[in-house]
Amino acid sequence: MPRLSVLLPARNAESTVAKAVRSTLSAMPADAELVVGDDGSSDRTAEQVLAGATRRGVVDPRLRLVEVVPGAGGITRVLTQLLEASDSELVGRMDADDISLPGRFSAALRCLARGDDMVFLQQIELREPAGGGAGRRIVPRVPYPIGPDEFGLHLLLTNPVCHPTMVATRDLLDRVGGYREVPAEDYDLWLRSAAAGGRLRRLGRWGIVYRVHSAQITASGQWRNASWADERQAQAFADLSERLTGVRLSRIVSMSNLTGAEREAEMARFAAAVRPPIEALGSRRAAGLIRRLEARQSWLRNQKNPSGQNLQGETE
């Protein structure tokens, strides 16, 4: 039995999946497997998966190509099937259009061996121009670390990590019930993991090259609105906020639907609850979180509510 299973869902990814597979196998330890789930692709995805795993005519034995059962549910359905198709102690993630960097798994595995439950790395973004034109940009995200004692507070302000950099213990994933069918299945999993007392960490180093393009579901306004309004994600957020602050808080994004006075009061309540645990971290680590909190407050002030007004009462 491999110690680590890296799950890679793929659907019509013939142009990128070979590089994703090749780079991930190169970065993986010997006692690991790459489990690729082909979700009903109509192109040459399966062929390119095998091509990416083949060297000198031999397919890497650590590759396992799984044809997933079709149905509703999108990526959550695929990830759940891949989890059930593996039984390793540790579970990692990769996407079909990203590139793994050398050392990403060894760095995460060292942290898990010391007692962490879920470890992430930072990403280098490869931003593709809309329409597939020229002008792609490489944008490295600042690789500063986030320790377990501050990770949950970051989650109350934003999603500070990238799903395909994750490596976690199966024990934690089982304990919180795995992935759920919600719009932001990754952020929802982080919230529930932190609320359950899991030790989550982001390392101060890059782990993948992450492609950013207009076809991603997270670039969709419809997806964003569905995520902001999802009741189960709101409950997971409130559970974590109660654990960290003693107060069940609303997500900042959901406050944008409130009218001026209500929104200002709810944001003030939020800030009053999160500032004490942030400041308890000490000035150096608290500084970044305070800046993030202030940025979120500024963002909220400028959001239009359903009547078209922001906090200053201005309309478009």
TrEMBL record:
<dbReference type="InterPro" id="IPR001173">
    <property type="entry name" value="Glyco_trans_2-like"/>
</dbReference>
<dbReference type="InterPro" id="IPR050834">
    <property type="entry name" value="Glycosyltransf_2"/>
</dbReference>
<comment type="similarity">
    <text>Belongs to the glycosyltransferase 2 family.</text>
</comment>
<dbReference type="InterPro" id="IPR029044">
    <property type="entry name" value="Nucleotide-diphossugar_trans"/>
</dbReference>
<keyword id="KW-0808">Transferase</keyword>
<dbReference type="Pfam" id="PF00535">
    <property type="entry name" value="Glycos_transf_2"/>
</dbReference>
<keyword id="KW-0328">Glycosyltransferase</keyword>
<protein>
    <submittedName>
        <fullName>Glycosyl transferase family 2</fullName>
    </submittedName>
</protein>
<dbReference type="GO" id="GO:0016757">
    <property type="term" value="F:glycosyltransferase activity"/>
</dbReference>
<feature type="domain" description="Glycosyltransferase 2-like">
    <location>
        <begin position="5"/>
        <end position="145"/>
    </location>
</feature>
